[in-house]
């Protein structure tokens, strides 16, 4: 039986430029190619959760433009419930400009568009859907007030909350105390902990600070190094899968969405992290955001072959 997951977050159209290297200030650089890819952290994580086998509902906003219609169509293809995605008249759908170099690293510029208009009323309209879910998954590409309202609704319904605080911003101890699973990369861990994070040792220190501030389980993702996992009763590292990197754009989103499904299904923490690691590793081997997110069969096959 599919576990129900509610996602509150963003929907973007990604404009991906494949380039040999990052341009210098004032430089015009000839690129290799250009691609339009469906993205946005909320939508990406929703797609990852759906492809891992969950019944996913997304609460979000798009504009009444061609990008918005295209993004909605993509969600429908992944059988994601988009009945709580509000279409805003005379507004642009969120857009991300992504520069992707030959090493697979990226730089991203966001124009939030309709994502900035997700409000408390949108959350209230989805209240019963959130309450019926097993778990709530949030990020920070939409207004913080709306995210907090959704988290409060989830807590009232006794749901677990997974928060991926990206893009990074400062959060109070009171907010972190509402988070059962906090998934952060090096940048986010550093901003929230006040410590520089660059390896497993510094990730361990940062995770301890975030737990002291109120977060439950803290997972620090470190790219090719792997992850640091800090639970109330244990802490350990897990290595990354060794793969050929093509594009890291949706690796984090794939990890978070896959992790949420594993937790909702009752996997233990270590197994859930390995499941998410496998999914993220497969994602970096392909170009784009949602185009790179794997399906469960491939994730489980890679785990069996490890």
From TrEMBL:
Sequence positions that bind K(+): 247, 249, 283, 286, 288, 292
Binding positions (ATP): 185, 221-226, 252-253
InterPro entries (alphabetical): PfkB_dom, Ribo/fructo_kinase, Ribokinase, Ribokinase-like
Keyword field contains Transmembrane helix: no
Class in the EC hierarchy, top level: transferase
Binding note for cofactor: Requires a divalent cation, most likely magnesium in vivo, as an electrophilic catalyst to aid phosphoryl group transfer. It is the chelate of the metal and the nucleotide that is the actual substrate.
Assembly: Homodimer.
PANTHER family: RIBOKINASE, SUGAR KINASE
Function: Catalyzes the phosphorylation of ribose at O-5 in a reaction requiring ATP and magnesium. The resulting D-ribose-5-phosphate can then be used either for sythesis of nucleotides, histidine, and tryptophan, or as a component of the pentose phosphate pathway.
Protein's recorded name: Ribokinase
Organism: Undibacterium amnicola
């Amino acid at each position: 039986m599919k576990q129900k997951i509610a996602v509150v977050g963003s929907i973007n159209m990604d404009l991906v430029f494949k380039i040999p290297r990052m341009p210098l200030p004032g430089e015009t650089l000839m690129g290799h190619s250009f691609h339009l890819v469906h993205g946005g952290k909320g939508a990406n994580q929703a797609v990852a959760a759906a492809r891992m086998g969950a019944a996913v509902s997304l609460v979000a906003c798009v504009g009444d433009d061609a990008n918005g219609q295209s993004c909605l169509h993509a969600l429908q293809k992944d059988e994601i419930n988009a009945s709580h995605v509000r279409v805003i008249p005379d507004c642009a759908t969120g857009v991300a400009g992504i520069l992707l170099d030959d090493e697979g690293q990226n730089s991203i510029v966001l124009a939030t568009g309709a994502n900035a208009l997700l409000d408390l009323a949108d959350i209230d309209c989805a209240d019963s859907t959130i309450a019926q879910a097993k778990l709530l998954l949030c990020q920070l590409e939409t207004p913080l007030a709306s995210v907090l309202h959704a988290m409060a609704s989830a807590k009232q319904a006794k749901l677990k909350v997974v928060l991926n605080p990206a893009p990074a911003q400062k959060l109070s101890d009171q907010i972190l105390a509402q988070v059962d699973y906090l998934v952060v990369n090096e940048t986010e861990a550093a901003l929230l902990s006040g410590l520089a994070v660059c390896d497993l040792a510094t990730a361990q220190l940062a995770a301890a600070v975030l737990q002291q501030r109120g977060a439950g389980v803290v997972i620090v993702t470190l790219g090719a190094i792997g992850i640091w996992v800090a639970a109330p009763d244990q802490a350990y590292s897990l290595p990354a899968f060794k793969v050929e990197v093509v594009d890291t754009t949706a690796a984090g989103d794939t990890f978070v969405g896959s992790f949420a499904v594993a937790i909702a299904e009752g996997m233990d923490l270590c197994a859930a992290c390995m499941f998410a690691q496998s999914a993220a590793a497969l994602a970096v081997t392909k170009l784009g955001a949602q185009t790179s997110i794997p399906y469960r069969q491939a994730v489980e096959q890679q785990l069996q072959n490890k």
